[in-house]
Design brief:
CATH architecture of the largest domain: 3-Layer(aba) Sandwich
Number of strands: 17
CATH topology of the largest domain: Rossmann fold
Strand content: 15-25%
Distance between the termini: 20 Å
CATH class of the largest domain: Alpha Beta
Oligomer: single chain
Shape: globular
CATH superfamily of the largest domain: SGNH hydrolase
Length: 390
């Protein structure tokens, strides 16, 4: 039996506005998007302008996008999310947190252009490079890891962001999309005669690790997308990831268990406690752990009986004592294990942050240091859940 105990403040939600529709042939829920990608579509729809061949992002190999029936191509959840789920989720489903392009190309230069979904490019505690920017990584075969290359900055929502960099042909490339904004349009520019190919995970992993949680899971408040702990776990373990973090809105409504179960995941990570209350302490019952957690996890397990689940305590940079929500979560974990549940991992708060109190911007939301700490803690939990050696 795989079971192991490993030893907030809401960010502003952007208003949802109208968007386009997904093109025919996009990847369905839980499918391996990289493996299913059709290179002919990228070639057929490319446009050469001023010596650069531009390919629309809807024809590029993308990871972290798992639903067909969406309002906008880059949405994280489908159109059938109902009002039984809070408005924050319904609005922030347009954010592209966790989405990334993975490809190789024989081009000697890469150019990127993108138009953000919302006009708000930054927040008072998170820069535009993290909220609305992109960043680029290259695969280093010698070091056997992804290495950071460059950040794409953005100064105007109307004009969008742009970035152009030299590239060593046939080097695998990873482009992380904005965390707290969405993308209305994305384009990759390559040399006119260059080709683009998908870059699957060398590990062979195709099913994603699905993270469901709060503003912290969402990516607040790191300086650029690649530093969000979910993205770091994906790179560190060489696994696909799906980010369903929703600032101030991870409340475990029963319907959300249905949407998670619609994804053919390798593992589910539940990290919602910051956004939930405890009715034992007089908190609102519509978001309380007592009312929501057990029905949620039981339905998820019923729909995906063989998929491991990680249950996380509420991260705390000060590593204070367990609160009522932590105690409930631990008790539920122990109850389920006693019932015979397998493939269940518990991640306590003391294995999430470091011990120097330096890991946040405001006592709650991680900075880049805090994200690195969380990546280690959550990475260890996911590694155990999946039985990985990497």
């Amino acid at each position: 039996m795989k079971k192991m105990i490993l030893g907030g403040l809401a960010l502003a939600a952007a208003a949802a506005v109208g968007a386009g529709t997904a093109p025919a042939g996009d990847i369905g829920a839980g499918q391996a998007a990289i493996a299913k990608w059709d290179p002919n579509m990228a070639q057929t729809h490319a446009v050469v302008t001023n010596g650069v061949k531009w390919i629309d992002g809807v024809y590029l190999p993308i990871e972290g996008r798992v639903f067909d029936n969406v309002e906008h191509y880059y949405d994280r959840l489908p159109t059938n999310v109902t009002t039984a789920v809070n408005g924050g989720v319904r609005s922030m489903k347009h954010h592209t947190s966790g989405m990334m392009f993975r490809f190789t190309t024989d081009s000697q230069r890469l150019s990127f252009k993108w138009i953000p979904y919302n006009s708000g490019l930054s927040m008072d505690h998170m820069p535009s490079t993290g909220v609305s920017g992109i960043d680029v990584y290259r695969w280093d075969a010698v070091r056997d890891r992804w290495l950071y290359v460059k950040t794409g900055r953005i100064y105007s929502a109307t004009k969008g962001g742009d970035l152009s960099i030299p590239w060593t042909p046939n080097t695998p490339c990873l482009v992380n999309l904005p965390l707290y904004n969405g993308v209305r349009r994305f384009e990759l520019g390559v040399d006119p005669g260059a080709t683009v190919s998908a870059y699957p995970h060398p590990s062979g992993q195709t099913k994603p690790v699905v993270f469901y949680g709060t503003s912290i899971t969402h990516g607040g408040c790191c300086s650029r997308p690649g530093l969000a702990f979910v993205n770091r776990v994906g790179r560190d373990l060489d696994v696909p990831v799906v980010n369903l973090g929703f600032s101030g809105s991870g409340r475990m409504e029963f319907e959300m268990s249905e949407h998670l179960a619609a994804i053919d995941a390798s593992c589910y990570v539940l990290d919602c406690l910051w956004n939930m209350s405890s009715s034992a302490q007089g908190g609102a019952t519509d978001r309380s752990v007592e009312a929501n957690y057990e029905p949620f996890i039981r339905n998820l397990r019923a729909k995906r009986p063989d998929v491991p689940i990680v249950m996380a305590e509420m991260c705390d940079v000060y590593c204070g004592p367990e609160n009522a929500k932590d105690k409930f979560t631990r008790a539920l974990y122990e109850k389920l294990v006693a019932e015979g549940w397998k493939n269940l991992v518990f991640l306590p708060k003391e294995r999430q942050h470091g011990d120097d109190f330096e890991g946040t911007v405001d006592g709650c939301h991680p900075n880049d240091l805090g994200m690195a700490d969380l990546a280690k803690g959550f990475g260890a939990a996911v590694r155990q859940a999946l039985g990985l050696s990497r």
